[in-house]
Target: ATP-dependent 6-phosphofructokinase
Amino acid sequence: MKKIAILTSGGDAPGMNAAIRAIVRTAIEKGIEVMGVRRGYSGLINGEIFPMDRHSVSDIIQRGGTILRTARCEEFKTEEGRKKAANVLSVFGIDGLVVIGGDGSFTGARLLSKLGVSTVGIPGTIDNDLTYTEYTIGFDTALNTVLDAINKLRDTSTSHERVSIVEVMGRNCGDIALHAGIAGGAESIIVPEKEFDADELCKNILSGRLKGKMHNLILLAEGVGGADKLAKRVEEITGIETRATILGHIQRGGSPTAFDRVLASKLGYKAVDVLMEGKSSRVVGIRDGKVVDLDIDEALSMPRTFNEDLFEIAQILS
Ligand code: ADP
Ligand code: F6P
Model:
């Protein structure tokens, strides 16, 4: 392995920069040249490729977003688009590609490896929706952002004795809602993985009031959606003023937490190691607290699991 490239793809996540820094510095230390690809697969197809050195990743470990920029690229979903990308890599003399992104980006990497490119994926998404790894880069930072918002919302909803419904990101995965709900002491957590009954929710709100609860915090995952509609319904049924807050893209920004920086550094280092071992079509992640690499097909075919124990704990503690 003489020359590798890095790209970030799909939704950005805090900690992607720390991963880029780790890849660049590890590769250079091991005598490998590193190229950066701008704008994900779209930049790869268009040859937006430039050399990177130790200095090009200075002062980025603390920054959110991605210095490489990111994109969603429809052309890469076609065989023709991927052939163009493989050709660009060959023209630049690049032997290996590190893809930082989520499951969509990994699917792209898997298909690209079938065209002879050595690929390794690093999980970078706030959603934490990749079963094969216990954590994805950006999840912890997003959780802390949500927690900060919840703390603020608590002040105002307590003062007004209101119900506050907070919609958080995560696509079809309820992990952000579940973890932020526990950490923020939410009364209810609504996730796509569990059935939900609005009447039951209203009953709980009313019985909470009878016991002296002066406010209610409800965490709603975007995969269930409809925060505004739910707020109206809760207000109609309970007669208690209810407000919805959709946190949106604020959850994807900000300086990465120490946890995400360390995770990104370990995974970036491991990705270079995997390419140096001559492996291809791999992903790196955390399993049983250890850094591992797995075959990408195996990783992507693992059925999604939901942490039922944590959900149970959340219900008992609410
Ligand atoms: P994420 O990686 O965060 O899941 P997306 O699902 O938006 O984000 O995927 C990011 C990009 O990965 C897409 O815009 C596309 O370029 C590529 N990609 C996604 N799915 C596929 C696929 N089935 N085949 C080839 N490339 C794909
Ligand atoms: O995958 C990360 C994510 O932030 C999801 O939580 C969310 O559904 C989606 O990306 C939003 O995408 P966009 O940036 O295109 O609005």
Q: What stands out?
A: The chain has a mean pLDDT of 97.
